[in-house]
Amino acid sequence: MSSLTQDIVHFINQFDQYPVDPEAYRLAKIGIMDSMACMFAGSEEPVVQILARHFGQRAGNGQTDVAVPFLKQKHLPLEQAACLWATAAHALDYDDVAMSAHPSTVLMPVVMTGGIHLSASGQAVLNAYILGYEVWAELFTREKDPYHIKGWHPTTIFGTVAGAAAYAYLSRLPQELIANALGIAASMASGLVANFGTMTKPLHAGRAASMAIEAVELARAGITACPDIFEHRAGFLKATSLAGNVDTQTPATLGQTWRLVQQGLNIKQYPVCYSGHRVIDGTLAIINKENFNLEEITSIVATIGQPQASMLRNPCPETGLEAKFSLEFDIACALLVRKVGLAELSDDFVKRADLQSLYPKIRIAITDELDPADTAFALHDRVVIELKDGRVFDSGNIRYPIGHANLPLDAETLKAKFMDCLQIWQNHTGIAGKAQPLFKALSGLEQQDNIRVTLDVIFA
């Protein structure tokens, strides 16, 4: 009987022989396009600029270096470029969500920078993304407890390993070296919830992408690692498990069903922690329908799960970064300006007195009923607002936020988000005319023979 690690190695090595569901390709393109848009929008964030300056001191100019298009085609070594791409993609917390994490914010930079480095086709890039997602899902779904409760950031924990799987495929790592790459990546995986609301959180994604690529290159260079890293009693899954309640023995089902199709991607409407999105939807639905004065409010009760509460840890935020992880901010912002967008995440807006005056009226209630499909979330969230005259407005149980895979955004809304994000970058940089050509090229990614040439033409 084969082991879990061997099953994953076989899947990577033989991926081209699997009949991939066409819907997986459509969703992979959405993930790549949405996260690239978020990358451009986030490229002016301080964490990205600091990282760019840090890497710029060691910037290369050789043919093997990778362009960073949002930095006027500055070229960096592959691992640094991947780190910068991923950090920018996650800097605004506007990127997609699945499996209690942000898969595209790691997978997109790995497969795109790796694809540029290798002059790969768009089809190969899509294959690598799908493979990475499937390996991520195979590992993540074996744990019954929420990783966030233990303090792990799943984006980095799983992104490092799944990214390594994706790049091992894309770079055609020999089969006998793939287990080493996965073992190296597993030892590199890290990321702590304590750093949510700081610059280190988006850096988690950056480090996951860079370490994924580095793990593959180290294996290629001859570094060895544990050959059964996923099922070993002291291996990846057991070590990261909250209570050891993780399945390391059941054979993998990779390639039998496509989890990207089954689970999909949840595209964000709001640039804040996904744990608050259902509450934002409920709050907006109430205020837009009932249209009452905020001075009339006596209490607001939002019911969420404990794992969500562990992430939404800033009851009185003072900065835009802190506000991204504050349910109190989410509710107050939705009530005050009837939207939660990038403009509302400025430090000046977060410090507004009329916004902060609503915080004492907000109480967070915890439900123990978790979503069996994703235990980082309650089965339902709910918002109840009571006014001085006794009127009570109840959102009712909210199962999915708008943009969830089961409540997806339409193509027009997805394109609008893409264009809005690119416009933010163009406004900051003074560069114009890139959004539409990039959208067109990515929409037909499978038709691109060489993505390095494609992007060089657009950003020349």
TrEMBL record:
Residues of the signal peptide: none
InterPro entries per the UniProt record, alphabetical: MmgE/PrpD_sf, MmgE/PrpD_sf_1, MmgE/PrpD_sf_2, MmgE_PrpD, MmgE_PrpD_C, MmgE_PrpD_N
Domain MmgE/PrpD C-terminal: from-to ranges: 270-423
Pfam families named in the record: MmgE_PrpD_C, MmgE_PrpD_N
Residue ranges the record marks as coiled coil: none
An MF annotation (GO) of this entry: lyase activity
UniProt cross-references to Gene3D superfamilies, sorted A to Z: 2-methylcitrate dehydratase PrpD
Superkingdom per UniProt: Bacteria
Residues covered by the MmgE/PrpD N-terminal domain: 7-243
Family statement: Belongs to the PrpD family.
Name of the protein this chain belongs to: MmgE/PrpD family protein
Originating species: Advenella faeciporci
